[in-house]
Hints:
Elements: H1 3-26, H2 30-43, H3 49-55, H4 69-84, H5 89-96, H6 102-141, H7 160-174, E1 178-179, E2 185-186, H8 188-191, H9 203-206, E3 217-218, H10 223-233, E4 237-246, E5 258-268, H11 273-288, E6 294-301, E7 304-313, E8 330-339, H12 341-346, E9 355-362, H13 363-371, H14 384-387
Parallel strand pairs: 1-4
Antiparallel strand pairs: 2-3, 4-5, 5-9, 6-7, 7-8, 8-9
Bound molecules: ligand 2U9.
Amino acid sequence: MTVTGHRDELELAIEAFKQWLDTFVRLLPKPVKEGLRRYWAETGVVLDDFVYERFDAIDLLADEDAPTLEALERAIEQAQVQLTGKKSEVVRLKSSIGKLDPSERAGFAKDVQKLEKTIGYTIDNLQKYFRKEAESARTERERIDVTLPGRRPRRGHLHPITMLRERIEDIFVSLGYAIEDGREIETDFYNFDALNIPQNHPARASQDTFYTSDGFALRSQTSTVQIHAMQRRGAPVRMIAPGRVFRRDTPDPTHNPMFFQVEGLCVDRGISMAHLKGTVAEFLRRMFGAQTVTRFRPSYFPFTEPSAEFDFSCFKCNGKGCRICKNSGWIELGGSGMVHPNVLRAAGVDPEVYSGFAFGLGIDRMAALMYGLDDIRLLFENDVRFLEQFD
Ligand code: 2U9
């Protein structure tokens, strides 16, 4: 191999590096170039003149075509491998030094080393800068502004029936009543017989419910809870039993096969109809305001004797007559009466010693009245657009 051949190859390697620089510089948008110049000024690095010269060349790229800082960082990494790696021209030239004529060796080796240093130093410097810039761009992109208002999770709220049940419970707890809960699947005995509704009694039809194949029934009223409680604790008792009940009704705006009730029971020595009237009237005053008047109308229930339905003066018009009370001034709410001696007996309480009153009302019916709903089924559809109005 001739001496000039080696020199040519060295020249070619220098040219290749300059070409790489040219291509690279063309990729740089103006602000990046300016940033790089500032970086050189600040750090005081000195690179070969031909590096600086290339940075003064015109900007060919429109900013929007500019590669990302990450892409530039990757381009430099590739160049490092290509220009200084094991398979690079510089390394090949270095390994050929030994084969040279000894008179050429020292001079050529010096020049190859100089090129190696120039490339290494330049690439190193560029790499440092672009790493730093790409990193701060990443940090900027991923920065979280902790002063921005947060996205607040929407808070839910209780179902309107639950809210109303809790209000009713609070009133009775303050009157000294316990709250009792029970099972929704019952035997015939607790749902009917114990409530003085024997087989073939016509009331079984109006309280028809759902049965399981092995003879259990979905409770049609929460009185079942009160029978259990009296059996367990005996008299005296003061309790309310709120809960879900079932009836074989065809759904319509005022009926649903599943609905909610509250029933109250007070059993003690000497309990009379006066206690019933006073308790229901007090409950309704606390519920609808001190001006509320209550009235009782004779009625019939198998489990109470005597029995009465109760109405209260309309909370909207105060008895004058309006759309809500259908111009009557009164709103019908529930049923009540003195617990039938047969019921006390079935629950293990001696009717010769104790007497008691009981009452019942529908929570959903009450909710429909208070919120002006024209269809109680809305309460059970679980449509959030409906429910969120009761926050
Ligand atoms: C026991 C004995 C008797 C509870 C009573 C009513 C009358 C009544 C209805 C109101 C509207 C049911 O939800 S509704 O359809 N209830 O008319 N409930 S007396 O009597 C009892 C309770 C427990 C041991």
